[in-house]
Amino acid sequence: MSTFNNPQQTWNQRFAAEHYVFGEAPNAYLLSQAAHLSPGNALAVADGEGRNGVWLAQQGLQVDAFDFSDNAIRKAHALAQNRQVAVNFVCSDWQSFDWQPAHYDNLVGIFFQFATPEERAALFARMLSSLKPGGTLIIQGYTPRQLDFNTGGPGKLAHLYDESLMLDAFGELDILDLRTYEAEINEGTGHQGMSGLLGLTARKRLG
């Protein structure tokens, strides 16, 4: 797939569309976990056109968000302006992003399954170290069941999530919610239809 040969060019072309490819509303799993968000700041990882980062800002959080597509960042700025919130959007890939240690009260990653298993291990480690003690981690991703539905996602088995992967990566956190499920999702034109999903919400222990 060309997406994995030159992902930045592929996503820039995709996000060049006038409409918001994944819609303007926040992800449903993130919405369902709102009560677990910690006061303070948040980072939205690979936030695309900004729908989740903007929603986090609407909850009164100070939000950083990054994506490697400048077209996505342009649209994210427009969405934030339209919703009258301030979000610090940065055009960056995850390797170049300034992961400050123990800096974020909340870390949110929604459908960021571009990473190979080796890259993913490094990315998860940076997310973990950047989360403050007492901070909340929220992740939504596709499971291998998604290959049957084919309604979005990377289409590569190695890039998909299961519960054991999450526990291996984040088992030192207090798990508040970990579920594998199927649901109809309606997120713009990019994610449409019945989907195989995983949701994780966890809190970093104090001390």
Quick rundown:
With 207 residues, the chain is an alpha/beta fold. The chain is 32% helix and 30% strand. It has helices at residues 2-5, 7-15, 28-32, 51-58, 70-83, 117-130, 146-149, 163-170; strands at residues 41-45, 62-67, 87-91, 104-110, 131-142, 174-187, 191-203.
Keywords:
single chain, 207 residues, alpha/beta, Rossmann fold, 7-stranded mixed β-sheet, 32% helix, 30% strand, globular
Any chance you could write out the topology, listing elements then pairs?
Layout: H1 2-5, H2 7-15, H3 28-32, E1 41-45, H4 51-58, E2 62-67, H5 70-83, E3 87-91, E4 104-110, H6 117-130, E5 131-142, H7 146-149, H8 163-170, E6 174-187, E7 191-203
Parallel strand pairs: 1-2, 1-4, 2-3, 4-5
Antiparallel strand pairs: 5-7, 6-7
Helix pairs in contact: 2-5
